[in-house]
Write a structure and sequence with these properties.
It is built from 17 helices and 18 strands. With 578 residues, the protein is of the alpha/beta class. The protein has 4 domains: 241 residues, P-loop containing nucleotide triphosphate hydrolases (Rossmann fold, 3-Layer(aba) Sandwich), CATH 3.40.50; 51 residues; 209 residues, 3-Layer(aba) Sandwich (Rossmann fold), CATH 3.40.50.300; 48 residues. The strands form 4 sheets. Strands 5-6-7-3-8-9 form a 6-stranded mixed sheet, with helices on both faces. Strands 14-15-16-12-17-18 form a 6-stranded mixed sheet, sandwiched between helices. Helix 3 runs antiparallel to helix 4, helix 5 crosses helix 6 and helix 9 runs antiparallel to helix 10. The protein is globular and about 115 Å long.
């Protein structure tokens, strides 16, 4: 039985085709990843699936009574409500029953009748079937897993940041527990702890089907068992996670290229024979071969890969071998302590991955390296011949009032317009696109403009703050390849585990604990850090199980002791009575 079925669905935004004659199904328990370039129609497909878009050709059939939950990229929350009140809306049916129970309880205080007792019992049974009072625990667990603290629960939605609103919308959707979850970029505003929590929730707790749009390859690897690739208005289906999809795509490409070449060689050979013999003694044979060629089903030429970013980071000057030295560095603002006692060294060509929740001081640390902030205690030393290039996740280096071509030309005034346009083509801006005003660009387009500026700076140390946030998978891969060939030093703040796993040689970790923010420097790759964390987690689980078993054994011992004591006292009473 299918939850949703598309039958020959076609969607156009005149005159452009977005989806072309698509037929797909979602079955119970499916874990599907929908991938494709930015702007290819992924969000359109989700909106059709959940009924927000109805102007299309074809049919969409849903299972009777299907409950669909859709996470869009635009949060939909009431500004006047608190965070907790928004979550409680999910449990409105239980809250209404509790109000009825309270009213009946007040009535029974003055007059308790069999009818009131039966009515109360029926409502209580219904309340229990819905889950009883467990919703407070569920709200705490889901919001906590998504990075909210208890003190955030009573904040008005109006004061939450855009990222917090997105996380709150996701939390509310998970609490609704629909039959089918449609998630559009669910990891965009989550740190690594939040992403890992969501992975665990989908894999181990959520029983429905999931269709998610994501450029987070690590997340896709850990969650999906089937990949839908939206390419050239069609859906191609691949079994397995993202890594398996890449393997199959690679084999498909080789097979297609080889099959096409073999047929082209055969056609060329036959054509040459026909041309040579069509008017000679072997005319009949040549005519036969010509007929066979005409009837032959031609293999289509494998389509060229879509244009991708053309990046090449270089450094104008080499810089020294000693890049950064921190000696017992601490930083605080008023009473808020960000980090303390930070000690480590970084050398030329190191790639330092920086991890930690939002708001723990990662960006502040970058500003300290740039000299915009200073340590509260300790010494932070940077090499004297360093030239920093800084990529900010808020795009602070962009002038929103300028056109793209103006923003770039300012950094290379000696270029002709043709040269600037040629340079921008490497970042997928062509034709009249170069005259777009930066304030009107999408997040992915602004990312590409900022990367275009960064390459022109030719810095020998790059500080990258969430560089892949708005990029699709091909753009992320292009950036990774360029950074892997960069002959200097990298510092990368990122929640993109795929990026860190590919590049990082050392890790700076900011951790939020009950005691505050702790920092440590891990001299190893992200994969080695992850393996260490897994080992620590397994050890903690073993110790936790030992503690639970010890407490259980103690309770059993006490219970047996009490039971034995009671039996002894009973025996004594029996003897005494005789």
């Amino acid at each position: 039985m299918s939850l949703v079925e598309f039958q020959n669905v076609t969607k156009m935004y005149d005159p452009e085709i977005i989806l072309d004659d698509i037929s797909i199904t979602i079955a119970p328990g499916d874990r599907l990843g929908l991938i494709g370039r930015n702007g290819c129609g992924k969000t359109t497909l989700l909106k059709i699936m959940c009924g927000l878009l109805t102007d299309f050709k074809g049919k969409v059939i849903q299972a009777k009574g299907l409950r669909v939950g859709y996470l869009s990229q635009e949060p939909d929350l009431e500004e006047d409500c608190t965070l907790r009140q928004e979550m409680l809306k999910v449990f409105a049916d239980r809250l209404e029953l509790e109000d009825q129970m309270l009213l009946l309880a007040e009535q029974m205080e003055s007059q308790e009748t069999p009818e009131l007792l039966q009515h109360y019992s029926r409502i209580q049974d219904k309340h229990d079937r819905l889950g009883g009072y467990d919703y407070e625990h569920l709200i705490n667990r889901v919001l906590g897993g998504l990075g909210f603290s208890v003190k955030d629960f009573n904040l008005p939605v109006s004061v939450l940041s855009g990222g917090q609103k997105s996380r709150a919308t996701l939390g509310k959707l998970l609490l609704e527990d629909p039959d089918l979850l449609l998630l559009d970029e669910p990891t965009n505003h989550l740190d690594i702890n939040g992403i890992e929590w969501l992975e665990n929730y989908i894999n181990n707790e959520y029983k429905g089907a999931v269709l998610l749009v994501s450029h987070d390859r690590y997340f896709l690897d850990n969650v999906v068992n089937k990949v839908w690739e939206l390419n050239q208005h069609q859906i191609n289906i691949y079994r397995g996670n993202y890594t398996k999809y890449i393997e199959i795509k690679g084999v498909e490409k080789l097979v297609d290229e080889r099959t096409f070449k073999i047929q082209q060689d055969y056609i060329a050979k036959e054509s040459e024979f026909i041309e040579r013999n069509i008017a000679g003694q072997r005319t009949r044979e040549a005519q036969g071969r010509l007929k066979r060629l005409d009837r032959m089903e031609r293999v289509e030429k494998p389509s060229a890969d879509s244009p991708s970013l053309n990046l090449n980071f270089s450094a104008e000057t080499r810089g020294g071998d000693d890049i950064l030295r921190c000696d017992k560095v601490s930083k605080q603002f008023d009473e808020k302590i960000l980090f303390t006692d930070l000690t480590f060294e970084v050398y030329r060509e190191d790639v330092v991955g920086i991890l930690g929740p939002n708001g723990v001081g990662k960006t502040t640390f970058f500003r300290m390296m740039l000299g915009e902030e200073h340590p509260t205690h300790g010494e932070l030393w940077v090499g004297p011949t360093l030239k920093f290039g800084y990529y900010t996740q808020e795009f602070k280096g962009l002038n929103l009032n300028k056109e793209i071509i103006e923003e770039i030309w300012e950094l290379c005034p000696d270029y002709t317009q043709t040269q600037v346009r040629s340079y921008l083509a490497k970042f997928l801006f062509s034709g009249d696109d170069v005259f777009k005003q930066i304030r009107n660009l999408s997040g992915g387009e602004q990312s590409r403009v900022q990367l275009a500026k960064l390459l022109l700076e030719k810095a020998n140390v790059l500080l990258l703050d969430e560089p892949t946030n708005h990029l699709d998978i091909p753009a992320r891969e292009a950036l990774e390849n360029a950074l892997s060939n960069y002959p200097a030093t990298l510092f990368i703040i990122s929640h993109d585990r795929y990026l860190l796993n590919s590049l990082a040689t050392k890790m700076l970790i900011f951790e939020s604990t009950k005691e505050g923010i702790t920092t440590r420097f891990f001299d190893g790759t992200y994969a080695e850090y992850e393996a260490e964390q897994k080992q620590v987690s397994e050890s903690e689980n073993v110790e936790s199980e030992k503690t639970i078993q010890k407490n259980t054994d103690n309770k059993r011992t006490k219970t047996k002791s009490k039971s034995k004591s009671k039996r002894k006292m009973k025996a004594q009473r029996l003897v005494g009575s005789n």
